[in-house]
Amino acid sequence: xxxxxxxxxARYIDTRTESEYRLGHLPxxxxxxxxxxxxxxxxxxxxxxxxxxxxxxxxxLGLSPEIPVVCYDDGLTGQLARTAFLLALAGNEVFLWTDGxxxxxxxxxxxxxxxSARWVRFREDLLLTADQAQRxxxxxxxxxxPEYRGEVHPPCCPRGGRIPGARHAxxxxxxxxxxxxxxxxxxxxxxVGVYCHSGTxxxxxxxxxxxxxxxxxxxxxxMHEWSHETDLPVEVDPPVRRGRRKT
Length: 247
Fold this sequence. Notes:
The chain has 247 residues and is α/β, with parallel strands linked by helices. The chain contains eight helices and nine strands. It folds into two domains: 11-122, Rhodanese-like domain (Oxidized Rhodanese, domain 1, 3-Layer(aba) Sandwich); 126-226, 3-Layer(aba) Sandwich (Oxidized Rhodanese, domain 1), CATH 3.40.250.
């Protein structure tokens, strides 16, 4: 899942910025950043359209079910984690390479993939939808404490707060894997859900937990989708009361 050296006979995906990519990338690597797409996945029609989009993505990138995909970046970034997550959802065997590839980034010419037939092997076991997240346990919110408490939310979301019953596990915890499962009360092989605002930070948590043997599932829509759905409740902490200063 996490690589330490080059993998032969693999397709390489560079998730860095366009300018970084053009300064030097792995030979044959295609630049791709899938942090922006937002999806509503509550109806069967929406799920089918989503799978069709993944099939088209595989075809446009010239990917094959038999060939592994290596996504790389300078560290475990959000764009690396979410891009790799979507490619894994599409049925690719995905590896993440966060360090050690830099000396081999000798190509500066953009790679143009040769399209292949469209295909998808949808990995439903990696994904949480909104309706599944309502009853999934345990479910971890990896946003900041103010976001979790409902004190702040981005302007694209009409409501702040969290999914009722979700536990707080800020993203910084996941960058210290030593003892992480004990802190979260998890065991290898256990199923667990994660979410954030847009499925990007939670994708980082997803890969870290998967690397520790936990059957993590990422709620891709996260609070961006949840807050727009009027039938889905949110939970907020009561405001902190501050006593009047004595004079």
